[in-house]
Amino acid sequence: MNWLQTHGPVLPVLLPAATAIALLLLGDGAGASATASEARRQAWSRRLALGSVVLGGWLALWLMRQADTGALSVYRLGGWPAPFGIVLVVDRLAALMLVLTSSIALPVLLYASGGWDARGRHFHALLQFQLMGLNGAFVTGDLFNLFVFFEVLLIASYVLMLHGRGGQRLRVGLHYVVLNLVASALFLVGVALVYALTGTLNLADMALRVPLVQGPDAVLLRAAALLLLVVFGFKAALAPLSIWLPASYAAASAPVAALFAIMTKVGVYAILRVHGVVFGDAGAAAADSAALVAQPLLLPLALATGVVGVLGALAAGTLAGLVAWLTVASVGTVLAAVGLYSTAGWAAAIYYLAHSTLIVAALFLLVELLGAQRGAAGGRLVPATPVAQPALLGILLLLAAASVAGLPPLPGFIGKLMLLQASSGAPGGAALWAVLLGGGLLTLIGLARAGSIVFWQVQAAPAEVGASAPPRGLAATGLLIAASVAMSVWAAPMLRYAQAAALQLSDRAAYAAAVLPELGGAAARSTRPYTGQAAPATPAAPSAPVASPR
Fold first, then answer.
1. Nearest Cα to Cα of residue 429 among 353, 344, 488
2. Cα angle 161-164-169, degrees, rounded to a multiple of 5
3. What single DSSP character describes residue 284?
4. For the segment 192-250, what is each residue's pLDDT rounded down to a tens digit?
5. First-to-last CA distance in the chain?
6. Closest C-alpha among 33, 102, 29 to residue 63
7. 471: burial class by Cβ within 10 Å (0-12, 13-18, 19+)?
């Protein structure tokens, strides 16, 4: 257990990486004409991938339990002290994101194992590389390594986007790849500017140095911060950079689109970490400081994202397109909470982020189950033959739709209520209330329209009723919806955890003391700007227990 406590923060990255390598060495038996030997390899690939995801989920829960004590688990690769070496940090928010990633990955793997994984090569290995990138992005304490893990998850997503082939998927995938490559190039430029102006890329160190940069350097640093906001906003699908997402997610296979539900939240997470904490209100030393550069922009853009997402959902012509636009709307709601720049707003963002990720992933799986039973119409919102399981699939859709729209007592209602309370009296609060309440009503109308077309506007039943949904598909969808409902059943501890995570995020001194103990934490580094030389070390004890390699 001591070994686990020491090396725990790096294991969410190493486990999927090692599993992916093992899966590549094992090979797979994709294809309908697979031989008996290939079929056995495919079965073993599924078992290995499932075992890895289950083990990763247990590890994420263990790290979450450790983080809930208030301790920051810090892992210094190679024993190099921060900010000179690579550092991984697990706090309450990072641990929650690890658990959320595992909660999405397990149902996705179950669903894909029903046959989707055999429609292309190396699905399970690519999924593990995707998990490696996601987990790494959540635990890294360094801006450059955030870029590295972004690239890992994006490279895996490029291939997963095309999994299963198809002309439409290829066309949309090409746009997806090109746009993400441009965003990655801008990310590197932003990282280079930040390093040139602050002398560090360690997030804890940056949070202490950014408010002290003044004069012409502060202007350049604000430009770098805005460039990073563009990059993270593109990843999160923040308007007007969200136009790529609906077509891409709607064209992807159902399990891939469900897994991609967590990818937009990586962008949200990066905005919260970088523009909420590093470039947040840290007590700027001068009026021209680069701190708070994103605050006047984030809330209006988030509200615009919510409006665009809801209107897109109303106009969607397919079930998958409807869910893709709802993904955009959910991002707008989460970023509106982040844009309040308050502890209550951040707590609402954390809670709603978890709920929206689970329910959007469930909807992507559910709409394919519905489309498979509608004959030639598929997922198009046109009258078609009745589905084979109207009661079961209808109840699942009703639960998911009610939660997305924010109806009580489901977690969508709780998250939106937290956001409304947090925005009371805040600048822009009236606009947020209007967008949130009006968006909820329009979302309900859009989902009711889709449900009425699928279940009520039906043509004459064919002589042979369509096949029922596969058990694995139903189980995977049910797991995700059950996890979302559980957020209402256990709302009190979830809200307490979200509030504690938001408070921990705003405590820059404790974070710096844990990550930079050799340099005296906040006491030594918050008194002078970057001069090209390290600040003198002064004794300072971390304010929370720290786990690091010896």
1. 344
2. 50
3. -
4. 999 999 888 999 998 888 888 888 888 899 999 999 999 999 999 998 888 888 988 98
5. 15
6. 102
7. exposed
